[in-house]
Amino acid sequence: MALSGIRIIDLTRILAGPFCSMLLADMGADVIKVEAPGKGDPVRGQGAMKDGFSWYYAQFNRNKKSITLDLYADDGRAVLADLLRGADVLIENYRPGVLDRMGFDADRLRQLNPDLIVTSVNGYGSTGPYVDRPSFDFIAQAMSGFMSVNGTVEDGPLRSGPPMSDLVAGLYAAFGTACALAARGRAGGQRVEASLTNGLISMLAYLSAEYFITGTPPVRTGNNHPIVAPYGLFHAADGDVAVAPSNDAFVRRFLEVLDLGHLLDDPDFASNDARMANRERINVLVNEKIGRQTVDHWIEVINKAGVPCGRVMGLDEVFDDPQVLAQDMVLDVPHPGHGDVRMTGFPVKLSGTPCRLRLPAPALGAHTDQVLRDLGYGDDRIDALRRQGTI
Amino acid sequence: MALSGIRIIDLTRILAGPFCSMLLADMGADVIKVEAPGKGDPVRGQGAMKDGFSWYYAQFNRNKKSITLDLYADDGRAVLADLLRGADVLIENYRPGVLDRMGFDADRLRQLNPDLIVTSVNGYGSTGPYVDRPSFDFIAQAMSGFMSVNGTVEDGPLRSGPPMSDLVAGLYAAFGTACALAARGRAGGQRVEASLTNGLISMLAYLSAEYFITGTPPVRTGNNHPIVAPYGLFHAADGDVAVAPSNDAFVRRFLEVLDLGHLLDDPDFASNDARMANRERINVLVNEKIGRQTVDHWIEVINKAGVPCGRVMGLDEVFDDPQVLAQDMVLDVPHPGHGDVRMTGFPVKLSGTPCRLRLPAPALGAHTDQVLRDLGYGDDRIDALRRQGTI
Question: Do the interacting molecules here have an ipTM over 0.95?
């Protein structure tokens, strides 16, 4: 696998950090998730549960090992130091400064392992006036400007449905870690950082470019494309169909499929500017045609004309969709004691070193003994650590 | 830099592919963007323009070189073959099969360069029933289920403001490429693929886990957290404040800051289940307190209590925010002939091999001669290619 032989010590919890380490584990890295004895990652008890088992945890912690370790105890921190000596990467999502106060500041880490890559995922980055603030996906969506451009004018700023700032930050952190690994022969160890707010800011795309030129914040446009018409959701006889004719050539093909090609001879609709000015009128004309047939019909004929088009799917439809299944985007993973757990598949496909499921999400501390023995700890020492509650 | 010495031939246009190659260029890769003579990437003429120059193009094509090459001409394809012989990575975002029909199928690519990593970004992946369909961000948002969980129950499915499926697919492709580079000593060349639909499907997080357990598609919850109350946007005297108390301990601290701690003694609000059942009532009580002070006041005191909290910012506020500026998330990049172009900064921070701005986005074909000379082409040959319109 692409990251075979890379050993990662993972101190993260909840979502952004565990997503980062999951992406690296899916690529073959040996990820050792360090969890608090008796409790573990709070996500073990969150989200949709079946028979006391969180499928949300199972999804985001596949391919990892779990050890318990009390990092508030000196003995626990000594074990962490031993783990770091033999590791390639440390991933953490504490607030900036917490790892330092735990006794693992930059100097100590360099002394333990000069080649260690230290990856941090946090709310605001590790410098600047807000560095000590707690963060959370919803707050990063608000403070990155994402909410200000998501939603409709009428309803006000809106968060995204999924926790995008967590996921984007986790993915950026995984990308940065992979780049640092690729550079390690030349660069040695270094610090990699991604934050919830910076990640979403970098995804404002043409909206930030528009603001930088005009000085005017973009308005929310709901499902209407800000600069192209007709475009968006149209109402077929049995549901909605999304159509995205992103330039004049596509608009012509789309209108011709609807027998509305003649509209392009009308000065009110001849240019994109004219169609934007008369968007409501052209949408009425388009909907009148679209309403006469089913979603399936339109998906067939509009795609055949080369115009991007698709069904607006609920998750029930997504996970029954033949394309989604053909792409292996649904996995059923046997979890001992919990039966098959369904989860989403691997979004990055590598032909030579493909991602695969090697381990189900671990029971809390399932690999503690094995990992400590690999460090050279004897049974007596492991028993002592267990008796005193350190592991 | 992390990817110094990595040479990338970039056939992509519009957004998902150019975002992937920008991320790799920001990390130090030598990216040669191949564009059609006389036209180039359509984004050169799209989005917010200033004096005929697209700042959207400038943002997503920084740190790249541009050469013109007619890939419909035999001579142009011969130049591409020469480029690929000396390259580490090829990135393309054609529909599956187009590169093959151009004469660069898997066998030919392997023959030209067995160590070449071939990265594809496309709509649906390269296998399955929809493989020949055109795609587009809006369609992937509809078909991934993202729209079904974004927005409010009342308003129906809603796309995200920014083009998230393009950006997530580009970021996944960059991550996969970096992993393939890290593996190359062992694995040699291989194919890396990310798609708009698969990328967003992988970001449904707890929403997909919930569906897999319950069999019921999640409902859109607007700004309300699906499983925690109180949570969301509250109305201060001069604007909205986002507050995310994600568990009981945070809810207690939040209510105590508001002098509403006594509510937790009331059976109607004592547990999260009770508060979810009485969400509207508790929101009224919270808003009554929040409305008495300014956003600034609440951000100060709620964060100080350790509860994640922030201002809902428009882009004007985001790009004036002291934290955003401290994180260098705004760059002013001198573009010869176009003055300073403002763009967003680097979302991944590497301490040892940091991202930096080496090149402004290139004029169309600005590096054609230099790149061809580096291939060993003489002036006569370059002139001939130019006369016949191949470059």
Answer: yes
